[in-house]
TrEMBL record:
Gene3D superfamilies: von Willebrand factor, type A domain (3.40.50.410). This is Mg-chelatase subunit ChlD. InterPro entries: LolB (IPR050458), Uncharacterised_CoxE (IPR008912), VWF_A (IPR002035), vWFA_dom_sf (IPR036465). Residues 230-389 form the VWFA domain. It comes from the Bacteria. It comes from Micromonospora polyrhachis. It holds the Pfam family VWA_CoxE.
Length: 394
């Protein structure tokens, strides 16, 4: 009596899933297990539509050829002839893959292959787990949604934003626990230990043989919120499509900074027009649902508007969040930034404000702004909050 069909070894099976059906003979020519066949079908449903792979001129032989043929657009998977819908696919990947893989697959679906029904189909939206990738997709495609779908999408936005706010608020509270002053304190709290002064004052007590420093006299610094004077933080956020992640985190950051002692927050989004969203800062969900991603970019105009909001130049931080691809007057932008720096304003040029802080930007213009005194780089929202707290506490 014949036994069940043999399956390839786990390592070979993983390679078979990576390479596709064309690699079947190279991986032992055994049928996939039921779960592996389902995984293959789910991967084929998504990555089988890659036109770039089908258009390549396949040359050579061996593994390279197997990889290109196996991942080409005619990949069909192995779970049967029925046509898989987006809802079926989401159900399958939720069953078959770990959370990190699911988020990657969903990200590729909406960002790489423009499968809009992931966020515009009400049945799909009811089943999908909220995450930042889908939030960005909602912001890009909300103009395609009917009122009923838009309401479901708003619930997704609310869930993701609530989680982001909760996470960042902890970092903001820690940063603003109280600004350190330069004077000593008679209250001995561990968080206020002046480590540098303590080490310097007790160096004579260092025991070489033990390699230990004995502290006889610790020093502490005072925290005095009454010393905090008002600072303005003006966030100017490019709402071009590539900046979706930074728009989201700018809204969340502004909401967390709002109402803190010593801080007055402004939030302005721009493309070729300018929208001052400061009055909506306390409701980041509503704010994000009003953002219109895409369009051109006039950075000079936005910075000029930001300059008009300044009350006290020496107590103002202008954070320009953009990819520096200027569609307006670059020379005017450089002049305005130079003027802001010369009058004592702190200018941050952030090519990314998100959890990854991985910038993609036009380096030529960014360098020009750095040359006139702007600080150019990328930050996570927590790093920006810490930067603001340190400025406010001086």
């Amino acid at each position: 009596m014949a036994g069940p069909p043999a399956h390839p070894e786990p390592t070979l099976e993983r390679w078979r899933l990576v390479l596709g059906p064309a690699a079947q003979s190279c991986c032992g020519d055994h049928p996939l297990s039921a779960d592996a066949a389902a995984q293959d079908a789910a991967l084929g449903w998504l990555y089988g539509r890659d036109k770039e792979l089908t258009s390549r001129d396949i040359r050579g032989s061996g593994v390279r050829r197997v990889v290109e043929e196996g991942r080409a657009g005619d990949r069909q998977g192995g779970s049967g002839a029925s046509v898989m819908t987006t809802v079926d696919w989401l159900d399958e990947i939720s069953r078959l893959f770990p959370k990190e893989t699911i988020e990657r697959l969903e990200r590729d679906a909406v960002e790489r292959y423009d499968i809009h029904d992931v966020v515009t189909n009400p049945v799909v939206l009811e089943r999908i787990a909220p995450n930042p990738t889908l939030l960005k997709a909602v912001l890009r495609t909300k103009y395609l949604m009917s009122p009923d779908v838009l309401q479901l999408a708003r619930q997704l936005v609310d869930a993701v934003v609530r989680e982001l706010v909760q996470r960042l608020a902890t970092e903001v509270r820690r940063s603003f626990a109280g600004a350190r002053s330069r004077r000593s304190s008679r209250f001995k709290l561990a968080r206020d230990l002046d480590l540098r002064r303590t080490v310097r004052a007790n160096l004579a007590n260092y025991q070489t043989e033990e390699r230990k420093l004995y502290v006889h006299t610790p020093y502490f610094v005072a925290r005095d919120e009454r010393r905090l004077r008002q600072w303005q933080v003006i966030l100017l956020v490019d709402q071009s499509g590539s900046m979706a992640g930074s728009v989201i985190h700018s809204a969340v950051t502004a909401a967390c900074l709002w109402g803190l002692p010593g801080v007055k927050v402004h939030l302005v989004t721009f493309d070729t027009t300018i929208v001052d969203l400061t009055e909506q800062v306390q409701d980041p969900v509503e704010l994000l649902m009003r953002v219109q991603l895409g369009g051109g970019t006039d950075i000079a105009r936005a910075v000029g508007y930001g300059a008009s909001l300044i009350d006290n130049p020496r107590r103002t931080i202008v954070a320009l969040i953009t990819d520096f691809f200027e569609g307006g007057d670059a020379a005017a932008l450089v002049r305005t930034v130079r003027h802001l720096v010369e009058q004592g304003t702190t200018v941050l040029g952030l090519a990314a404000l998100d959890e990854e802080a991985e910038p993609a930007y036009e380096r030529g213009l960014a360098q020009q702004l750095a040359d006139v005194g702007a600080h150019i780089g990328a930050m996570t929202p927590g790093e920006l909050a810490t930067f603001v707290a340190e400025k406010v506490g001086r």
